[in-house]
Amino acid sequence: MQNNILNYLYQTVQRVPEKTAFSDGTNALTFRQVYEASRSVGSFLCGKGFCKRPVVVFMRRSPDEVAAFLGAIAGGCFYVPVDEEMPSGRIQLILDNVKPPLVICDESTEDAARTFRLEGGEVVRYSEILRTPADEAALERVRRSTIDTDPIYIVFTSGSTGVPKGVAACHRSVIDYIEQLSEIMGFHENTVFGNQTPLYFDACLKEIGGTLKFGATTYLIPKNLFSIPVALVNYLNEHRVNTICWVVSALTMVSIFGTFDVVKPEYLHTIAFGSEVFPIKQFNIWRKALPDAVFTNLYGPTEGTGMCCYYRVDREFASGEAIPIGKPFPNREILLLTGDGKLAEAGQEGEICIRGTSVTLGYYNDPDRTSAAFVQNPLNTAYPEIIYKTGDIGRYNEAGELMFVSRKDYQIKHMGHRIELGEIETDVGLLPEVQLAACIYDAKRKKIVLYYVGDVGEKELAASLTAKLPRYMLPNKVIKLEEMPLTANKKTDRAALKKAYEGG
């Protein structure tokens, strides 16, 4: 029985030790090197007595960062990825939440890492940790004591209060995800992944898990290439990338600029997409350029361990149609629940709720928000059974395929990321020049619109936000108001803001 994701690495390193596992096109690690690095990191943690503790990995996106993740697990701990592109305030909130005994950094992040407040923790360079010889006895003790409900990572998502939520996932849910996704997508030893997503999101599990399980290879595509479409496709061809699992915005960036008139991905045969609705016009450009490729729409929240539903595109879609979410992965069930906790009827809308092994452990050090989203299955009154309420509204079409309709609350999906509009409002409201702030989302144009009342100009406010918010959370339009519209009970009237925006 598989109870530790590192078993994938242990089995694969015996088969293909010298094969490239992870590369960014310049630096690469073989499976043997990943294995040895993970054991050094694990031994270092064991020597410090850090078992079952959160270890923050604050490194640049690289093969070494992946090895550090695995090393944290080998030492019986769980990793918490952070990145330089995160605002410093957000990183500090994460550190305050998890209170790590150790922050692993590299040469490029060490100075920044040492500026943060740590409660009794220390900052250590990855290169120094690698000098630790493998402690076979200690690593074996960790391996024997590991059970499949032990956490392996905490990934932070947006929070409506301005405080990010740390989703804790365990071996069991991640193993199940890797197994089911691999079967659905057809990953194998000759798969060459082109990773697009940051490593501080759970989305990278698609490539990391598939690589470890099959002895495949993952290329961590340089971020700057996603603004140079022709160079991006040339990179895919240079490294013979045949499988990508990208957010929709990354795919449309390629198709919208006529890239395929210049160059096409020669080896690409498997394309998965998710996190947003794929505009049919752009999707059809991709399908026309790669008529023999298999396209799969994936859906799922971080709280459900990656993706939980899929739709293999098997028909033509006309302009204005939406590609279905499809059906759940094996070993999980989607409950479409109405407001009174009953199953939605045919054609009726309901909240998408996830049942099964893929449901994560909850939010780290956050019992209130955990109890609000991870709830008892209302259809089961016989024994405890936790389901996750996604906040997404869906319905089944006439073919019995699940369709995404909208968000239940102010959480949106933008540029491939789940974002709480309330988090943006909170950060903006902290600026001394701003009295009130409210966000709406223009789903048609995919724009975040920020309204505010304050003593600062629109351009000045927009410029100051670049230092406070991640790029994907920056408002696309900033509008100054003399006064904020309020409802009868003195809450911000977002409906009035949306009406004014659409009317203007």
Short characterization:
The chain has 504 residues and is α/β, with parallel strands linked by helices.
Task: Please describe what this structure looks like.
The chain has 504 residues and is an alpha/beta fold. It contains 16 helices and 26 strands. The strands form six sheets. It has a nine-stranded mixed sheet with strand order 2-1-10-9-11-12-13-14-15.
Give the helix/strand class: alpha/beta
Strand content range: 25-35%
Largest sheet: number of strands, sense, barrel closure: 9 strands, mixed
Shape call: globular
Average pLDDT number: 92
Q: Provide the spatial order of strands within the biggest beta sheet.
A: 2-1-10-9-11-12-13-14-15
Instruction: Give the helix proportion (percent range).
Output: 25-40%
Please identify the oligomeric state: single chain
Q: End-to-end span in angstroms?
A: 60 Å
Total E-strand runs: 26
Q: Flag low-confidence runs.
A: none
- Helical element count? 16
Notable characteristics:
504 residues; alpha/beta; 9-stranded mixed sheet; 16 helices; 31% helix
Topology summary:
Blueprint: H1 6-15, E1 20-23, E2 28-30, H2 31-48, E3 54-58, H3 63-74, E4 78-82, H4 88-98, E5 102-105, H5 110-113, E6 122-125, H6 126-129, H7 136-145, E7 151-157, E8 165-170, H8 171-185, E9 192-195, H9 205-214, E10 217-220, H10 229-238, E11 243-247, H11 248-255, E12 270-274, H12 280-289, E13 294-299, E14 309-312, E15 327-328, E16 332-337, E17 350-356, E18 362-363, H13 367-373, E19 374-376, E20 386-396, E21 402-407, E22 411-414, E23 417-420, H14 421-429, E24 434-442, E25 447-454, H15 458-465, E26 477-480, H16 494-503
Parallel strand pairs: 1-10, 3-4, 3-5, 5-6, 9-10, 9-11, 11-12, 12-13, 25-26
Antiparallel strand pairs: 1-2, 7-8, 8-18, 13-14, 14-15, 16-17, 17-20, 19-20, 20-21, 22-23, 24-25
Helix pairs in contact: 1-9, 2-3, 8-9
